[in-house]
Amino acid sequence: MPLVVTCNSQAAFATNMAPGTPVRPTSILVVGATGTLGRQIVRKALDEGYDVRCLVRPRPAPADFLRDWGAIVVNGDLSKPETIPATLVGVHTIIDCATGRPEEPIRTVDWEGKVALIQCAKAMGIQKYVFFSIHNCDKHPEVPLMEIKHCTEKYLQDSGLKHIIIRLCGFMQGLIGQYAVPILEQKSVWGTDAPTRIAYMDTQDIARLTFMALRNEKIDNKLLTFAGPRAWTTQEVITLCERLAGQDASVTTVPVSILKLTRQLTRLFQWTNDVADRLAFSEVLSSDTVFSTAMGETYGLLGVDQKDIVTLETYLQDYFSNILKKLKDLKAQSKQTDIFF
């Protein structure tokens, strides 16, 4: 059975608790702080003088790097709503970067967990809620993850909480493991035959713009989309990585028709439903959809100069330059320490 999400949750919003001790506006809780975006949000917040608390699931390997940076780590789990309220005591703003793990059902964290978090935030008088969503999520109700994001947007808007919704297109950081590293290691990279274009953005820029929006009262209760300066196809990204690495890539192309067939087959078995849900998202990424938007109005609202936004060329150039320099230095050190008998 396909995943069905009801945007208007039957659970009623709790009434705000009576006012207690005022909390500092600089007190924030980052949910999903160990993720690609979350850790950049944490670092930027600390750099700007915020008191940062990070909600982290209990785990065998503690998130010590967050403590080392100066954040407070509190244990909680969106899939266990009873663990949420204690993490919100003394918090002014929630910044929600969380998403479910690949091995989890999409609905558990991304819908049920978010509904519980929003309800707790309302009940405990949280002053502002920042939610990261996906660009074009309202245009793909057939894709469970995108439909859940859209439903969460609507649920947050209906909650009465002061909020900012930020839709994202793609992270530049994700391209390192997907393309840059395999090309350097002369391993195969995977692509599709679809003309999908994605305007990737550096997560450091996303974090910087997020705090500009957080400080700007004109942005309250608005929906923004953050996109990079240019939208790229998979093949264009691979070609750029090849040029910067100075070597050709071994590309394995997966036809979109195979993704569609795989999704249909996995729907036949209950235990593979979540796989099918995620393949549905892959199918959208492999279509002719453009994940980009004009940023002129957003730049104007935030007072940002487009020239200050990192381009994909610059980001990958810096990465490859640093990696190739390190490899060259390691090779030189290796020659210096060679001993011949």
From TrEMBL:
<keyword id="KW-0934">Plastid</keyword>
<keyword id="KW-0604">Photosystem II</keyword>
<dbReference type="InterPro" id="IPR008030">
    <property type="entry name" value="NmrA-like"/>
</dbReference>
<dbReference type="Pfam" id="PF05368">
    <property type="entry name" value="NmrA"/>
</dbReference>
<dbReference type="InterPro" id="IPR036291">
    <property type="entry name" value="NAD(P)-bd_dom_sf"/>
</dbReference>
<dbReference type="GO" id="GO:0009536">
    <property type="term" value="C:plastid"/>
</dbReference>
<protein>
    <recommendedName>
        <fullName>NmrA-like domain-containing protein</fullName>
    </recommendedName>
</protein>
<dbReference type="GO" id="GO:0015979">
    <property type="term" value="P:photosynthesis"/>
</dbReference>
<keyword id="KW-0602">Photosynthesis</keyword>
<feature type="domain" description="NmrA-like">
    <location>
        <begin position="27"/>
        <end position="276"/>
    </location>
</feature>
<dbReference type="InterPro" id="IPR044256">
    <property type="entry name" value="HCF244-like"/>
</dbReference>
<dbReference type="GO" id="GO:0009523">
    <property type="term" value="C:photosystem II"/>
</dbReference>
